[in-house]
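Entries read chain and fold; for instance:
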Amino acid sequence: MAGIVKTLERLRRGMSGIMVSPDFEHFKRSLWPEFRRWCPWQNVAANQRRRQSAGWEPQRPFAMIFENGASLLCGGIEDAEAYRGPNVHFAYFDEASRKKDPAALKVLDGRARLPGPRGEPPQVFMTTTPAMNWLFDYFGPEKENDPFAAFKRDSVQIILRTDDNEKAGNLAGGFAQKRRQTLSEAEARVLLEAAWEDINDGAAFLPSMTIFDACKETLPAADRRTAIVLAVDGAVTGDTFGVVGVSRHPQRRGDVAVRVIEAYEPQGRPLDYDLIERRILEICRTHNVVQVAYDKFQLHQMMQRIAARGVWTNVFEQGGERLVADKQLYDLFLARRVAHNGDELLRRHVANANRKVEGDDRMRIVKRTESLKIDLVVCLGMAAKRCLELNL
């Protein structure tokens, strides 16, 4: 309702705009009936007032024309490119969380370019439930080296909680409490309290981070006889370069122990691959590294040079082998067969990860949202698999 009231206020002042849902069916069944209920039909052009009837149902996108000359393009935005062209004062995007990427926002932001009659700035506004997808990247808390920092500082978020709406008399008494009865705690935080939390885009890699914390223990230092498998995952633009080394557990030989954790982030400029290569070679000199497993994307030449120094490098396939490794790491954590020292960066990467089940014995570790880093947990899975395969 808030977005509709804002839309009508702008139309009243003679500003033209766009009003869309994620798809036309949502527009037809949800956004349009609510707009029709609030629209002051006496201000709509006479030849269009037939749309006021409950018996009139939109069949395709259309334009509403008002007596003051303002117009409103209405419909679904299945194809964002279809809205390139019109120049408007504002754009209203309802239930934006249903879109899986920011393409619609980017197009609408480019169309809202006209100042209002009193100099009002062009504006895009959205009403939506939070979702841990592109919305979190654009509207979540500002992070260090945040690529959307300027956008976030230029945006305003208004959080409307269900219980506040109930207290204002807009909902039946006790609605929020009854609504919670059918929701999980995470769902209630998102749907009733507008919290940033993942409930739709896959399950968290670990059901609870207490599982990770329970695997923390004090390990004796690795000596020159401790065989270590190193796994590296090269960064694409904006990502982290991860390096993780594991050994067999010194007492529980069927378990793995994390021995090396290093991460290199771009920090606004390209990674220094020469420095990283020197560091990997240094780790190989100071530890008993028996294999370096690597994702060959961007790393083949580096690994050839490292192999020329007498180090066994071995490609880790990111298709089927990754799916097996990711599932194995999940099982190892659940069985408390991964020992680590509680490294905070590793913990953060584990917490950032979701799991996408591909079958009974296959799983892929994926990012909860594009801006979050998971490289270290991916490397840990690669290293653990190769370590347990070798007779160390």
User: Anything to note?
Assistant: The chain has two domains: 2-191, 209-389. The chain has a mean pLDDT of 91. The chain is about 35% helix and 20% strand. The first helix runs from residue 2 to 12.
